[in-house]
Amino acid sequence: MDRRAIPEARSAEGSSGGRLSMGRSTDKEMRLSEQRKYRSWTAQQKIEIVLAGLRGDRSVKEVCREHAISETLYYGWREKLLEGGREMLAGKEERQGERELRRKVAELERALGRKTYELEIAGKLLREWE
Fold it and tell me: Which residues constitute the domain of residue 78?
């Protein structure tokens, strides 16, 4: 039977006829057309992994290898954790300044919306006048 005639029977083979590997090796065979399943981590798991790297008793590389994550992912989680801590520990004045900036941005967005609406109406009237 010709395997090219039935798409489901296709297998991922290299030019040498051997199986192609896609990422980590797993017990389950994975076809090229299958959706890759990504793991999800809870906030608590992320915190525990980052704290394990921050403790210093093991290297970040070892922690990442143990949990099968990339160092880039680890450092991204670490940065988010530290940023959240900075925001929570910021003084009242800093938080008040942020609130004031958010209020000003909302005010400017409303003004931009009004002006956009006015331009649409003016354009419509001008086209009707011509």
Answer: 42-89
Contact predicate 78/53, CB 8 Å:
yes
pLDDT tens digits, residue range 33-88?
A: 677 778 899 999 999 999 999 998 999 999 999 999 999 999 999 999 998 888 78
Task: Name the burial class of residue 73, with classes exposed (0-12), middle (13-18) and buried (19+) by CB atoms within 10 angstroms of its CB.
Answer: middle
φ, ψ for residue 36, nearest 5 deg? -75, 135
pTM: 0.47
Reduce the DSSP state of residue 39 to 3 states and report it: coil
Rounded to an integer, what distance in angstroms lies between the CA atom of residue 58 and that of residue 24? 24
125 and 103 inside one domain = yes
Q: In the numeric block, which tokens belong to residue 81?
A: 């954790």
Residue 105 pLDDT: 96
Residue 13: what are its φ and ψ, rounded to 5°? Answer: -120, 145
